[in-house]
Amino acid sequence: MRFDEAYSGNVFIKSHPHYEDSSAVIYGMPMDWTVSYRPGSRFGPTRIREVSIGLEEYSPYLDRDLEEVKFFDAGDIPLPFGNPQKSIDMIEEYIDGLLADNKFPIGMGGEHLVSWPVIKAMYKKYPDLAIIHMDAHTDLRDDYEGEPLSHSTPIKKAANLIGPTNVYSFGIRSGMKEEFQWAKEVGMHISKFEVLAPLKEVLPQLAGRPVYVTIDIDVLDPAHAPGTGTVDAGGITSKELLASIHEIARANVNVVGCDLVEVAPIYDPSEQTANTASKLIREMILGWVK
């Protein structure tokens, strides 16, 4: 996919028309080939863009306006339906290109496996990379029913790549007993159930480091985000997730990229989930793109 071609579909509100002089790039990863419960997240990026038209361009939380940040909406990576390995390879190559041009990548999923090739590309540029991961699920399996390419495996793959002590997971409330045991044995940070309070404690440890942030929308309670593939009761509120994004923005960490995944619009006729995701992305842009 060429970076110098403007996306012909709907774009995220206030996106800049030119790639060359944009600091950040929004892109979609419309893949749900490996989900174990409900598909549909491949339609997430398009709907998040469409509902963004209802957003205010100004954030009263951060006192910034989208006018102040040049970000380019590159559209969706044209991933081959049903082919996870080729899709992963294409995503990694795509991010390699963005990073070579010194762009800040902002990804929209798609299932959570799409974060894995992004992290691989980020690690090539930032060998001291740390990951902040917000999710209902550990995503620390080696495979799902014998298949290593699964949306239940990306954080385990990332931890094996960059070192488990460099991965910080928050909001976790679901996973196999073996996953929690593995994390404890190798020194990986997992905060169960909560995000904001433990995040505040961890952020000073990441001062000055390059940090990639990956957010699975199901970290929210289903009351706040029913439109996702694997809903799990007991999650945080959208207010707490927004506050967590802002806490990262105020901290002395170098956020170098981010993604928001697992929005599946078909399961939420009210469009609450897509609208929440759109607002979260606005705050990520205004808080993390310098």
What does this structure look like?
The strands form two sheets. Strands 4-1-5-10-9-6-7-8 form an eight-stranded parallel β-sheet, with helices on both faces. A two-stranded antiparallel ribbon has the order 2-3. α4 links the parallel β6 and β7 (167-172). The longest helix is centred in the N-terminal third of the chain and has 17 residues, at 84-100. α1 (44-51) packs across α8, α2 runs parallel beside α3 and α3 runs parallel beside α4. The chain has helices at 44-51, 84-100, 115-125, 154-162, 177-186, 196-202, 238-250, 272-288; strands spanning 24-29, 58-59, 64-65, 71-76, 104-109, 130-134, 167-172, 189-192, 210-216, 254-261. It has 290 residues and is of the alpha/beta class. The radius of gyration is 17 Å and the shape is globular. The chain has a single domain (24-288), classed as Arginase, Chain A (3-Layer(aba) Sandwich). The chain has eight helices and ten strands. Its EC number is 3.5.3.11. Keywords: Hydrolase, Manganese, Metal-binding, Polyamine biosynthesis, Putrescine biosynthesis, Spermidine biosynthesis. Mn(2+) binds at residues 112, 135, 137, 139, 216, 218.
